[in-house]
C-alpha cells in the first residue's frame, strides 16, 4: 500500500459499498464514503453527495481532499434499481437508472482523474453486475447501465493507461445483502440452483477483489472485467 493512500467509495454506507470501505480501512487506507440517504457508519469519514449532480460530487471531493489530501483510489459503487418489464418501463425508469449508475460513475471518474493526473497514479474501480454482462428480465435499464461501465473503463484505459492510471470493472453476481435477505426461500433456491458455486457471495468477497485491483500488484491490469459470481455468467 502507498503510504497514506486515500480511498473514496461512493454509496459506501451499506451493502457492498460498506464492505469495500471496511476492507480498505482494515488494510490501513484513509477511507471516505459518500451517501445519499440513510444512516452513515460512524467508523468512516462520510460525505453526503448525489452522483446525479456534478456540483455535489465536486463538493464531496473537495471535502475529502481537505481531510485526507489527494484521492488515489475511487470505487464507483453508488447505484439504484427500478426493475420492471420492458413493456411497462417508463422513460423515467430508464433514464433515472442510467443517470445514477452510468452517468453518475462518469461524473465521479472525471472528477477523480484531476488529482490522479497530478499525482501520476490512480485506480478507478467500477462496480458493475453480472446482469450487465448476462442480461436479466425486468432489468433493461439496470443491465444497460452496468454494461456501459465496461466501455467506460476500457476507454479510460486507452486514454490514461500511460499515466499510471488504471480503470477496471468488478461484476458481482448474487451477494448476501439486505436486498437478497428479503427474498423468499423459494426464490433463493431458484437462484442458487443456477449458480455453479451453489451459494450467494459474502460482500467481503467483492471487497477482496477491489483491494487487489487498487494495489501495486495490479498495476498492469486495466480495462479488465472481473466477474465475482460463482460462475453464473461465465463466458459473458
Automatic annotation (TrEMBL):
Entries under SUPFAM superfamilies matching the protein: NAD(P)-binding Rossmann-fold domains
SMART domains reported in the protein's UniProt record: PKS_KR
Enzyme kind, highest EC tier: oxidoreductase
Lineage: superkingdom: Bacteria
Sequence intervals crossing the membrane: none
Pathway the protein acts in: Lipid metabolism; fatty acid biosynthesis
Catalyzed reactions per annotation: a (3R)-hydroxyacyl-[ACP] + NADP(+) = a 3-oxoacyl-[ACP] + NADPH + H(+)
Matches recorded under InterPro entries: 3oxo_ACP_reduc, KR_dom, NAD(P)-bd_dom_sf, SDR, SDR_fam
Domain Ketoreductase, chain residue ranges per copy: 5-178
Keyword Nucleus (UniProt): no
EC number(s) recorded for this UniProt protein: 1.1.1.100
Keywords: Fatty acid biosynthesis, Fatty acid metabolism, Lipid biosynthesis, Lipid metabolism, NADP, Oxidoreductase
Segments forming a coiled coil: none
Described function: Catalyzes the NADPH-dependent reduction of beta-ketoacyl-ACP substrates to beta-hydroxyacyl-ACP products, the first reductive step in the elongation cycle of fatty acid biosynthesis.
Subunit structure as annotated in this protein's UniProt entry: Homotetramer.
Family that this chain belongs to: Belongs to the short-chain dehydrogenases/reductases (SDR) family.
Protein name: 3-oxoacyl-[acyl-carrier-protein] reductase
Species this chain originates from: Rothia endophytica
